[in-house]
Design goal:
This protein has helices spanning about 25-40, 90-105, and strands at about 5, 40-50, 55-60, 65-75, 110-120, 130-140. By secondary structure, it is α+β, with helices and mostly antiparallel strands. The chain is globular and about 45 Å long. The relative contact order is 0.22.
Length: about 150
């Protein structure tokens, strides 16, 4: 079961670095990366892509020595539903496969790994999100890729 954290929203003037041309996903990923760094994570990659997929954030949790694959979901609307609900089984499968390819490509199969989701509600015309939640160990690896500890 995922551990869910409700996080305080910082009114940080540096958040204005986001340009009007940034889409919601990019804004959310950058905000999530900052949050993770402030909470003991070292960024390895943001928007890590290969020929078959993408992982929003790859970080290393320093105290646990764990590689964390993070899916960031940002909603800029007031429509019903939770951002994390958009990480369905199909998306989990894509992330799992991309994570395995990343670990193989970087010779890191021996490391402990987990999958987190950061869900962000960021109303239009606001400088900062109204809500951010971090779901630690949000899902297990999918299909035949049960390699993570």
């Amino acid at each position: 079961m995922a551990k869910k954290l409700y996080l305080p929203i910082r009114k940080d003037p540096d958040i204005r670095q986001f340009s009007n041309q940034d889409n919601a996903g990019q804004m959310g990923e950058r905000y999530a990366a900052r949050y993770l760094e402030e909470n003991g994570y070292k960024m390895i990659a943001i928007r890590e892509r290969d020929h078959r997929g993408e992982i929003d954030i790859i970080a290393k949790h320093l105290s646990e020595k764990t590689i964390v694959f993070v899916e960031v979901k940002t909603l800029r609307t007031s429509k019903p539903g939770h951002p994390a609900e958009r990480v369905d089984r199909r998306k989990q499968r894509q992330i799992t496969h991309a994570a395995l390819r990343y670990l193989k490509r970087n010779h890191q199969l021996e490391f402990k790994a987990r999958f987190d989701i950061i869900a962000i509600r960021w109303p239009h015309h606001e400088d900062v999100p109204s809500e951010i939640q971090h779901f630690i160990s949000a899902f297990e690896s999918v299909d035949d890729y049960q390699i993570f500890g």
